[in-house]
């Protein structure tokens, strides 16, 4: 009521016109990308979180197509090892700025993996779970490791469970090589040392460092764009539960392994 009276006063009329112009210019209907698994969610997107119209739980679990999402951009081939990779536009812009600065110092950064949604991660996970993809030392886990918990923990040394990966968010990327040894000497060491020294100036943090109490092994190649990733990590702390991690072979192990607390939140403190 007060609002209507305010609009009827001379100053209020001006405000009313401004409000109308604002709504015409800026309040475009949000694009809601479709869910891929045919489900609909009753959750409403938290507008304070950067999920671009996808409800936040669906977003953090990667159940959307980044190619169809309004906040994602394709990584130009000049910065990538292959075409067809996507990142959040803010993360890509920050990476390009970082890469440009690095190039000036003779450091060449290359994105070798970017956004992987739930369905892409499910393929990776199930290939390892079912022995179609061998893990290190040529092990076929379906044969060598019948115990489900032990098998899941083995895969989790380097691969996330579908629904629990930071790669779902569009904020995280793997750079240059997927081996810590590469970053321990020569060109790789120069790249890693540069990232440790300068990454934070562009908003990047290494989530899987040495010395953490739980979570994935060290990954010197994995870097995360914190201005978007930090609020999503906070969201997971409060709203993502082990029981939500489901829909793939071996998902029954998620609660016993405590996937959310030990893996999603088992990151470098500086990235929180
Ligand atoms: Zn990674």
Q: What Rg, in angstroms, do the CA atoms define?
A: 22 Å
**Helix coverage percent of residues?**
25-40%
The total strand number stands at: 6
Quote the average pLDDT: 86
Shape: globular
CATH class: Alpha Beta
Ligand catalogue: zinc ion
Strand coverage percent: 5-15%
Structural summary, described in words:
The protein is an alpha+beta fold. The protein has one domain: Muramoyl-pentapeptide Carboxypeptidase, domain 2. Helices cover 39% and strands 7% of the residues. The protein has eleven helices and six strands. It has helices at residues 2-8, 10-26, 56-60, 89-104, 118-129, 141-144, 148-155, 186-198, 226-239, 254-257, 259-264; strands at 72-74, 86-88, 111-113, 172-175, 204-205, 222-225. Strands 3-4-6-5 form a four-stranded antiparallel sheet. A two-stranded antiparallel ribbon has the order 1-2. Helix 1 packs across helix 2 (10-26). Bound molecules: zinc ion. The site of zinc ion (ZN) has 5 residues, from strand 4.
Blueprint of the fold:
Blueprint lengths: L1 H7 L1 H17 L29 H5 L11 E3 L11 E3 H16 L6 E3 L4 H12 L11 H4 L3 H8 L16 E4 L10 H13 L5 E2 L16 E4 H14 L14 H4 L1 H6 L8
Antiparallel strand pairs: 1-2, 3-4, 4-6, 5-6
The structure holds zinc ion (ZN).
The site of zinc ion has 5 residues, from strand 4.
Structure described in brief:
The protein is an alpha+beta fold. Helix content is 39%, strand content 7%.
């Amino acid at each position: 009521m007060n609002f209507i009276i305010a609009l009827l006063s001379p100053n209020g009329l001006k405000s009313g016109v401004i409000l109308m112009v604002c709504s015409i210019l800026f309040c475009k209907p949000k694009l809601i990308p479709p869910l891929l698994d045919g489900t609909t969610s009753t959750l409403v997107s938290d507008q304070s979180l950067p999920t671009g119209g996808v409800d936040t739980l669906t977003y953090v679990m990667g159940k959307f197509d980044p190619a169809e999402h309004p906040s994602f951009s394709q990584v130009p081939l000049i910065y990538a090892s292959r075409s067809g990779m996507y990142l959040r536009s803010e993360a890509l812009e920050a990476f390009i700025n970082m890469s440009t600065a690095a190039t000036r110092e003779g450091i060449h950064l290359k994105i070798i993996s970017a956004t992987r949604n739930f369905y892409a991660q499910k393929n990776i996970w199930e290939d390892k779970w079912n022995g179609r993809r061998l893990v290190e030392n040529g092990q076929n886990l379906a044969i060598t490791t019948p115990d489900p918990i032990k098998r899941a923990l083995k895969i989790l040394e380097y691969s996330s469970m579908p629904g629990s990966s930071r790669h779902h968010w569009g904020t995280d990327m793997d750079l240059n090589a997927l081996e810590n040894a590469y970053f321990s000497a020569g060109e790789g060491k120069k790249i890693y040392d540069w990232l440790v020294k300068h990454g934070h100036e562009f908003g990047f943090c290494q989530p899987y460092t040495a010395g953490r109490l739980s979570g994935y092994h060290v990954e010197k190649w994995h870097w995360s764009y914190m201005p978007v990733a930090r609020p999503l990590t906070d969201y997971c702390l409060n709203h993502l539960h082990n029981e939500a991690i489901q829909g793939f072979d071996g998902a029954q192990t998620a609660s016993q392994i405590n996937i959310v607390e030990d893996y999603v939140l088992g990151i470098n403190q500086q990235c929180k």
